[in-house]
């Protein structure tokens, strides 16, 4: 990687560039990320850059092209690193936002106020992303689980029947599909605490492989549920979620917020319910506890957040009750992020 980055930066700057150090960031084998230290300070770049590569999956390269397109789309926004150079769909070199912390770092810490401040900065960032950036973004690829979420419905119907809870025939899928189509914005696609870096108290986004033009509620619902796709899933105090709601709404204006968040939450519940066969399968006790508490918490929160779709919301509640009845794990309280361990009941 280093020799390629040296060559690309040299071509960009029209001078020789040397890399004298490398620090690995993250732990993804498919998309390695590194901070590269340069031999000196360069105008407009600094002393370090971030390089992200993509290893082939099944003989084909992944969707790193989306990262480049998104960074170029956000170039003037100040909400993300600045794209510098790269190799299409194989390597992206961008400016370095610094050492953080990320919002994840704060949630894993022991300071609830710092974690709250980070989450509020994250919520404001979402509002800026959806309201202040040009929505006319053409992604290099579609993320099936987000862009075709309702395709999961037939499988969900089959899985739910095993709980004696088939969805009603008049569930509002047509209305939900229409809402997903009619309101679109530039969205991140993986709006989780590890992808938000704080720079002088302001939040910035990284990791845009899942970026796309889609309903903004799919990002916003990550604040409300919270973070349904996050690998370190846990819950937040309701008071903190309310503050995040307010921060997002204050930053994003000119939309029906109740409908926006309902659309996002209902869609995320459907996305997560597509995993129901896995969640219901035989598994280790630790996996069963984690997956079953999460699915019940997610669809219960989605039901409370989706009054726009009353039949669908009521069915979410019925299905959650059936899960609690069947699984001991589903009746256990969900884990709370470390920073809020003493605030579980707030």
UniProtKB/TrEMBL annotation:
It comes from the Bacteria. It holds the Pfam family APH. Transmembrane segments: none annotated. The keyword Transferase applies. Keywords: Transferase. GO terms for molecular function: transferase activity. Residues 59-224 form the Aminoglycoside phosphotransferase domain. This is Phosphotransferase family enzyme.
């Amino acid at each position: 990687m280093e020799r390629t980055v040296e060559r690309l930066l040299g071509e960009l700057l029209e001078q020789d560039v040397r890399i004298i150090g490398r620090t690995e960031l993250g732990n993804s084998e498919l998309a390695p990320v590194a901070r590269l230290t340069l031999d000196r300070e360069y105008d407009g770049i600094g002393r370090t850059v971030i390089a992200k590569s993509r290893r082939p999956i099944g003989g084909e390269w992944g969707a790193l092209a989306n990262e480049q397109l998104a960074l170029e789309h956000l170039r003037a926004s100040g909400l993300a690193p600045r794209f510098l150079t790269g190799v299409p769909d194989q390597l992206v070199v961008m400016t370095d936002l610094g050492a953080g912390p990320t919002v994840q770092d704060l949630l894993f810490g022991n300071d609830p106020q710092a974690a709250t401040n980070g989450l509020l900065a994250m919520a404001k960032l979402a509002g800026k992303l959806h309201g202040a950036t040009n929505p006319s973004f053409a992604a290099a690829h579609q993320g099936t689980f987000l862009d075709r979420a309702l395709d999961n419905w037939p499988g969900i119907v089959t899985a739910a029947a095993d709980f004696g809870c088939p969805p009603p025939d008049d569930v509002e899928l047509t209305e939900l599909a229409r809402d997903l189509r009619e309101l679109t914005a530039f969205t991140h696609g993986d709006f989780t605490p590890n992808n938000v870096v704080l720079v002088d108290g302001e939040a910035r986004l990284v990791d845009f492989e899942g970026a796309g033009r889609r309903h903004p509620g799919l990002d916003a619902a990550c604040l409300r549920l919270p973070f349904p796709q996050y690998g370190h899933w846990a819950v937040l105090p309701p008071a903190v979620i309310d503050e995040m709601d307010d921060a997002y709404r204050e930053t994003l204006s000119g939309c029906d917020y109740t409908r926006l968040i309902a659309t996002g939450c209902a869609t995320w519940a459907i996305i997560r319910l597509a995993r129901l066969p896995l969640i219901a399968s035989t598994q280790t006790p630790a996996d069963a506890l984690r997956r079953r508490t999460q699915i019940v918490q997610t669809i219960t929160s989605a039901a409370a957040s989706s009054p726009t779709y009353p039949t669908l919301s009521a069915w979410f509640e019925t299905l959650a009750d059936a899960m609690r009845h069947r699984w001991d794990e589903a009746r256990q309280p969900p884990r709370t992020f470390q920073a809020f361990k003493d605030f579980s009941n707030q």
